[in-house]
Amino acid sequence: MKVKVLGCYGGIAPGRGMTSFLINDTVALDAGGLSFALPVDRQAKVKDVFISHAHLDHTCCLPFLIDNSFASPGFSLRIYGIHEVVTALAKHLFNGSLWPDFTSIPDDLTPVLKLVTLEPEKAVKVGNLSVRAISVSHSVPTTGFVVDDGKASLAFSSDTGPTHRFWDVVNATKNLKAVITESSFPNSEEGLARISGHLTPALLGMELSKLGRDVPIYVYGAKPRFVSRIKSELAVLKRKNLRMFVQGRTYAI
Ligand SMILES: [Zn+2]
């Protein structure tokens, strides 16, 4: 499985401070930075977007992703999320006010956009990928995702504070090859991290004690002004398989 980092944390790259990962060129996990980081011809290849939660740094490119491609012959996009997520997108974004309601354009029968509600932990198939949404602990209803291509599985926690079910599912996932998780604030801001449903490097260290598998761990989410502090605090954890994602890089999982 090929994972391209379209948005992960601060820096001079496009999509800074936003979150989006592209799998095998066609399936996206979250959509912060997605249309900023990809040229238009490659945006049109993205057919399925799984949204972990409605926060703008994970969804802000959805309007432009559709707008840039909806007039292309045969274009359609499916956006997946748990009930609370698709409801928020329909009510607050594709509502005909903030942005057109593409779920009824050009008409109700053949819309360019479909919002697909996910049942937590129930797998959906997209091409050769199987995707499960797993609930995590953030300030709004949020899931991570476990993506399986039959040979390798990838677990993405999305934004989360200390959580449990995600790690239980990760530990039970066969073919697990990588975990993507977050560290948004430095250790000095633990209070802020806890009330906003995020992790510091120290909290991440405690979370990783729940991980019973020896796989690479990729960290995203550092707030732009804290990137270097978080990087040094992650080094203190002394986990040889742990590294921060690099904006724009493609990883083979
Ligand atoms: Zn969030």
**Count of helical regions:** 9
Ligand set: zinc ion
Between the first and last Cα atoms, what is the distance in angstroms? 5 Å
Q: What fold name stands as the CATH topology?
A: Metallo-beta-lactamase, Chain A
Regarding quaternary structure, what we see is single chain
- Main beta sheet strand tally, sense and closure: 7 strands, mixed
CATH superfamily: Ribonuclease Z/Hydroxyacylglutathione hydrolase-like
| The level-1 CATH class | Alpha Beta
> What is the helix content?
10-25%
Which geometry do the CA atoms define? globular
Report the order of strands and helices.
EEEHHEHHEHEEEEEHEHHEHEE
Total count of strands: 14
Task: Supply Rg.
Answer: 17 Å
Strand order of the largest sheet: 6-5-4-3-2-1-14
* Residue-averaged pLDDT: 94
Content-based structural category: alpha/beta
Number of spatially distinct domains:
1
CATH architecture: 4-Layer Sandwich
Binned strand content: 25-35%
Low-pLDDT segments = none
Give the SSE map.
Layout: E1 2-7, E2 20-23, E3 27-29, H1 34-37, H2 40-43, E4 48-50, H3 56-59, H4 62-67, E5 77-82, H5 83-92, E6 113-118, E7 124-126, E8 129-135, E9 143-148, E10 153-156, H6 165-171, E11 176-182, H7 190-196, H8 201-208, E12 217-220, H9 227-236, E13 242-244, E14 250-252
Parallel strand pairs: 3-4, 4-5, 5-6, 10-11, 11-12, 12-13
Antiparallel strand pairs: 1-2, 1-14, 2-3, 7-8, 8-9, 9-10
The chain binds zinc ion.
Give a short synopsis of this structure.
The chain is built from nine helices and 14 strands. With 253 residues, the chain is α/β, with parallel strands linked by helices.
